[in-house]
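Bumping my old thread because nobody answered last time. Still need a sequence for this structure:
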């Protein structure tokens, strides 16, 4: 049994500060592999503030294919876990509790007896979900955390006993599909202790046949695929560890190319169970069923010809929370979740909005003139914009080393609409807006793969200079004109008002221009309105 605060939120408010209209709800999902509880305050608008979480893994679905019944030991472990969850709900003042059971209880011949024992011993009333209900709740959760308002999407949830698919277009569900090909079932049926390569081929052939009968691929060619459930959060942890991001605080939003998914399956399938239990990022308790679950996922991705899959850190419990709070599902506008998350983090940390927005404006001016020559992309521009808004939020903790505090606040924050890699870039760019330049000996930077380090270094170089151009937090520099000469990169400051004195801003920009000179490959000249030139070499080199 594990109880932990949500990994998604670190900034909390007291009960007295919560809106009076919020409702505290406990959602418990009794799955084939695990039982999970989320207690959260849900607002009428659908904002979820997680208060506490608890989970256990009694494996109710183990052996179900062979016996048709829930194992007594698993039942006893489940009752213990549910009793603790019921107690936690009472202690935290839950107003409404919703408990659902999925395929294991739904399919077991003693499922009704189990539900009666739960009611008698814990006081919890359990609702059995149909497979289509699971798919609908998974979609509702995805709709709240991803931009599904445009185009076709497939929301895939794999549990121990079944696979659920929700197929949508422009934010509206068109089909719900449930198939009995969950991670436990497929592992027990095909991937036993002495499984061979032919057994994996047989598993995939079986799943392929099920999908062919229920999913017409020609109608769902190359959609975006969003995935929830323990199979996928484990996959994301393994993938992030492979690319040097094993310390990422959340897997939510991880984008995994289909080729990498296949490579991970091949690698894990070639290992013994003991070897799998040592794989970085993989929960040892899931090591015996992970390959079966991933094989199912790979066949779904192949069926719809998806280039990549996106992992959700949320699942049907969040769908239950929203449904219980009577929040009407609605697709978000493209980019809305990301902008909202960044803005809310900035506001919660009482950022200095005029300075941050002005630095953002100057940084984007520099990016638009320099980005392409520095090998940066349009997506990198978004990262710079977010880092500029958040670069000083570390003041919320302390002025001293506030850049490092900014890094940690961003690293631990819930920022929707971006991948863990994107969040790591934003955190590092904010970290390096002042002080030491990026160095491989810094763990937060050096452990990342080379492409990420390259992006961080270039964006940090731009943000440092932009921040220097607003050294007095007065918005005195209205525009930066850029000329990339053969011998130098010349940045000319244009005052925002006729009587503005830019002496402090020119000094600030020159002191922080060394990294930009390094990535540009030429000296950087900071030029005043009168044509006077300052360079990094004119100063002592100390970064502000």
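Sorry it took so long. Here it is:
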């Amino acid at each position: 049994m594990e109880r932990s605060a949500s990994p998604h939120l670190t900034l909390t408010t007291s009960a007295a500060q919560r809106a009076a209209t919020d409702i505290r709800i406990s959602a418990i999902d009794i799955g084939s592999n695990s039982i999970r509880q989320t207690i959260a305050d849900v607002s009428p608008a659908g904002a979820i503030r997680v208060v506490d979480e608890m989970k256990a893994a009694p494996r109710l679905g183990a052996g179900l294919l062979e016996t048709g019944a829930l194992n007594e030991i698993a039942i006893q472990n489940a009752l213990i876990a549910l009793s603790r969850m019921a107690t936690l709900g009472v202690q935290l003042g839950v107003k409404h509790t919703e408990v659902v059971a999925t395929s294991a209880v739904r399919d077991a011949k003693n499922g009704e007896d189990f539900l009666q024992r739960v009611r008698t011993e814990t006081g919890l009333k359990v609702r059995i979900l149909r497979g289509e209900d699971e798919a609908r709740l998974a979609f509702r959760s995805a709709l709240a955390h991803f931009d599904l308002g445009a185009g076709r999407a497939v929301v895939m949830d794999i549990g121990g006993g079944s696979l659920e698919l929700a197929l949508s277009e422009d934010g509206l569900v068109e089909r719900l599909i449930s198939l009995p090909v969950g991670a436990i079932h497929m592992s027990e049926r095909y991937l036993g202790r002495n499984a061979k390569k032919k057994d994996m081929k047989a598993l995939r052939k079986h799943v392929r046949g099920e999908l062919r009968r229920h999913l017409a691929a020609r109608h769902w060619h190359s959609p975006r695929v969003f995935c929830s459930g323990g199979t996928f959060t484990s996959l994301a942890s393994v993938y992030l560890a492979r690319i040097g991001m094993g310390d990422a605080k959340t897997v939510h939003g991880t984008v995994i190319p289909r080729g990498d998914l296949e490579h991970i399956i091949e690698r894990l399938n070639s290992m013994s169970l003991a070897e799998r239990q040592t794989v970085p990022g993989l929960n040892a308790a899931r090591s015996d069923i992970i390959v079966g679950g991933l094989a199912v996922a790979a066949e779904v991705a192949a069926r719809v010809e998806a280039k990549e899959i996106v992992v959700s850190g949320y699942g049907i419990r969040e769908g239950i929370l929203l449904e219980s709070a009577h929040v009407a599902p609605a697709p978000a506008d493209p980019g809305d979740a990301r902008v909202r998350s960044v803005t809310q983090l900035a506001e919660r940390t009482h950022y200095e909005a005029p300075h941050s927005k002005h630095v953002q404006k100057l940084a984007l001016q520099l990016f638009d003139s320099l980005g392409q020559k520095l090998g940066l992309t349009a997506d990198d521009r978004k990262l710079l914009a977010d880092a500029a808004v958040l670069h000083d939020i570390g003041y919320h903790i302390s002025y001293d080393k506030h850049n490092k505090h900014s890094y940690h606040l961003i690293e631990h924050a819930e920022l929707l609409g971006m991948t863990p890699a994107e969040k790591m870039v934003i955190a590092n760019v904010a970290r390096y807006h002042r002080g030491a330049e990026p160095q491989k000996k810094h763990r937060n930077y050096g452990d990342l793969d080379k492409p990420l380090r390259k992006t961080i270094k270039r964006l940090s170089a731009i943000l440092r200079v932009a921040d220097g151009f607003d050294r007095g937090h007065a918005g005195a520099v209205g525009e930066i004109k850029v000329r990339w000469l053969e011998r130098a990169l010349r940045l000319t400051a244009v005052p925002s008002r006729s009587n503005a004195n830019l002496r402090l801003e020119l000094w600030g920009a020159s002191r922080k221009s060394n990294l930009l000179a390094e990535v540009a490959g030429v000296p950087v000249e900071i030029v005043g309105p009168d044509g006077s030139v300052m360079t990094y070499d004119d100063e002592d080199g100390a970064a502000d």
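The CA atoms of residues 314 and 434 lie 35 Å apart. Let me know if any region looks off to you.
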